[in-house]
Please model this.
Amino acid sequence: MLKKRFYATLRAAIIPVLLPGMYACIQVEYSEPDVIEHPELIQLFYCNYNFCGTNSNATGGSTATKIYMYRTDTNYQGNFGGRATANGYCSASRTTSFSSLACTNDLAFVSYGGDAILDFPTNHAVPASVPIVSPTEVTIDSNWAGLFDGNISVSVNGAGISTLTTTYWTGSQSNGTVSGTNCSDWSTTAPTGTRGLRTSTNTNWIDDTSPNLCTGSLVMLCICW
Model:
């Protein structure tokens, strides 16, 4: 019969041979109509080939069950460059600091003319109906549209996304559309760029209404799936 492979995470509370708080990642192989003797003890879930743990995200990409939000490792002046360059900064930061995230796509959470963050599901195939979470699995909002309805569930800071600066570049209005102040599509150090506030759960989390000088250096938020 057709064999199916799953990974099982066994918690110390129910598997006494493990130390408290530890997880064991094992592969279970069975043939239908076989059953596991004690299914209540085992949480079955699909894993990325290289990762089995709390950051499981199916196989990422189009099958992602969540979107991760994180931040760049470096501050950038407002002339950090076009979309591909910004995405590259995000990818490099994930590889360096958030390598456990099961993702296949990285995207800088900033708006450009013709490519606003509101339109990421259309322009970049970002999953629109899955939750947005921090690297530690704190839910920021339940779906993409919820990021732009005036309130998010928890602030960037509250979600544990510690940023190197109290604000971050967004180039976006609170509704997710592109702002008129985005350092000329992030190509110049003049005049100003819209920023978000890391401690806010209202519209200020995307637009704190006090644009930053483009000569200043801020981090960017990033998403991956």
In short: Confidence is low (pLDDT under 50) at residues 1-54.
